[in-house]
UniProtKB/TrEMBL annotation:
Catalysis performed (reactions): a 1,2-diacyl-sn-glycero-3-phospho-(1D-myo-inositol-4,5-bisphosphate) + H2O = 1D-myo-inositol 1,4,5-trisphosphate + a 1,2-diacyl-sn-glycerol + H(+)
Protein's name in the database: Phosphoinositide phospholipase C
Organism listed in the record: Ameca splendens
Domain of life: Eukaryota
Transmembrane segments: none
Taxonomic lineage: Eukaryota, Metazoa, Chordata, Craniata, Vertebrata
Domain PI-PLC Y-box: 78-193
CDD domains recorded: C2_PLC_like (cd00275)
PROSITE patterns: C2, PIPLC_Y_DOMAIN
Names of the cofactor(s): Ca(2+)
Length: 333
C-alpha cells in the first residue's frame, strides 16, 4: 500500500494530537521527546567524564542555572502530512504495548538503546515487530563519529541513523546492508525478526540448530591502487563477518610483498554462521606498512544472502564508496 509513497516523520500540532484523545501530559511528552532523550544522554556522558572534578563545583552555582527548553513549532501544512510516522516519546516496552499506536514512531539514543538490548533483547525485537524505532547517535559525538549499526539491526530497528559525512566501517556496513533491492534504502526484515511463535535473542548463540557454513578461497587481486608515493603495495585481504555477536568473525590472508598488479593468496577460510539472514560479508584489502600497522586500500560489503556459489569477481570501492575499477578480487565461494 505504501509503495512509491513518501512517509514524513515528524511531530504533529497539539490540536491534532487532542483530536486523537491524548492527555495534556502525553502531548507535552510527545513534543519534547527527541530533545529530552538527547539531553539525558548528554548529561549522563558529562557526569561520567567529570566525576573527578565534582569537588570544584559550587552547588549554588550548579543549581542556579535552569536549562530553558525551546518549544518545537510545527507548520499546519507539515503537521497534516504526518500520518504513518508521528514522533512520540519512548517510555518502556510495556508502555508502548499498552499505549502506542502502530502509526507512531519512537526515537531512542544509542546509549539507551544499547542498554535495552543488553537488558531485554527479545522484548526489543518484539517491540519492533509492531512499531517503528529510530536509533540516533549520541549528542556527545561532536566529531560526527558513528556507532556500529549492526547491533541495532540485530533487534529489528527500522531507522538506524548515521552521520553520513563520516566515512569508515559503519558507512561501509550501511551501504552493504542496502545493496539488496537495488540500493533503494529499503529492504524487508528477515523472518527471524518477525516470528511470533518463537522469541529471538541476538545475544544468544543458540538461535538456529543448523548453522550455515561459508567456505571461501581468496584467490587473487588485480590492479590494486598504488599510493601517491608510487611504491608497490604489500597487500593482504581481511574478510569480516558482521552479524549477531556469536557470528561476528575476522580472518586475514598472508601478506604478499611488493605486488599491486596481481597478488596471489590462495587462502582458504571457513566461517560458521548461526543467523545468516542478518550477516554482512566485508572484503577489505589493506597495505601492510609496518609489522603492526596497515592502511586501507579498498573494500566491498554485501549481505551474506546475496553471495552466490562459484568463482566470483569482487569489485573494490574506495573509502567514500566510489568504484576503484579495475581494482578487484577473485574469490571462490
Amino acid at each position: 500500500d505504501l509503495k512509491y509513497k513518501i512517509l514524513i516523520k515528524n511531530k504533529k500540532l497539539r490540536s491534532q494530537i487532542k483530536a486523537d484523545n491524548k492527555t495534556e501530559a502525553e502531548e507535552s511528552a510527545d513534543e519534547d521527546g527527541d530533545e529530552e532523550e538527547e539531553d539525558e544522554e548528554d548529561e549522563e556522558e558529562e557526569d561520567e567524564g567529570h566525576q573527578s572534578k565534582a569537588k570544584f563545583w559550587s552547588p549554588r552555582k550548579a543549581g542556579s542555572k535552569k536549562k530553558m527548553k525551546k518549544k518545537v513549532k510545527v507548520a499546519q501544512a507539515l503537521s497534516d502530512l504526518v500520518i504513518y510516522a508521528r514522533s512520540v516519546k519512548f517510555i518502556s516496552f510495556s508502555h508502548s504495548k499498552d499505549n502506542q499506536n502502530c502509526y507512531e514512531n519512537t526515537s531512542i539514543a544509542e546509549k539507551k538503546a544499547r542498554k535495552l538490548i543488553k537488558a531485554s533483547g527479545p522484548d526489543f525485537v518484539q517491540h519492533n515487530q509492531k512499531f517503528l524505532s529510530r536509533i540516533y547517535p549520541a549528542g556527545s559525538r561532536t566529531s560526527s563519529s558513528n556507532y556500529n549499526p549492526q547491533e541495532f539491526w540485530n533487534v529489528g530497528a527500522q531507522i538506524v541513523a548515521l552521520n553520513f559525512q563520516s566515512l569508515g566501517l559503519p558507512m561501509d556496513l550501511n551501504d552493504g546492508r542496502f545493496r539488496d533491492n537495488g540500493g533503494c534504502g529499503y529492504i524487508l526484515k528477515p523472518a527471524v525478526l518477525m516470528s511470533s511463535e518463537r522469541s529471538f535473542d541476538p545475544s544468544s548463540s543458540q538461535n538456529h540448530l543448523k548453522p550455515a557454513h561459508l567456505l571461501l578461497k581468496v584467490i587473487s587481486g588485480s590492479n590494486l591502487p598504488v599510493p601517491k608515493s608510487g611504491k608497490a603495495l604489500d597487500p593482504f585481504v581481511r574478510v569480516e563477518i558482521h552479524g549477531i555477536p556469536s557470528d561476528s568473525r575476522t580472518k586475514n590472508t598472508h601478506t604478499v610483498k611488493n605486488n599491486s598488479l596481481s597478488p596471489h593468496w590462495d587462502a582458504d577460510m571457513n566461517f560458521s554462521i548461526s543467523v545468516p539472514e542478518l550477516c554482512l560479508v566485508r572484503f577489505c584489502v589493506r597495505d601492510q606498512t609496518t609489522l603492526f600497522r596497515s592502511e586501507f586500500v579498498g573494500q566491498y560489503t554485501l549481505p551474506f544472502t546475496s553471495l552466490k556459489k562459484g568463482y566470483r569477481w569482487v569489485p573494490l570501492q574506495s573509502r567514500d564508496g566510489c568504484s576503484l575499477d579495475p581494482a578487484s578480487l577473485f574469490v571462490l565461494v
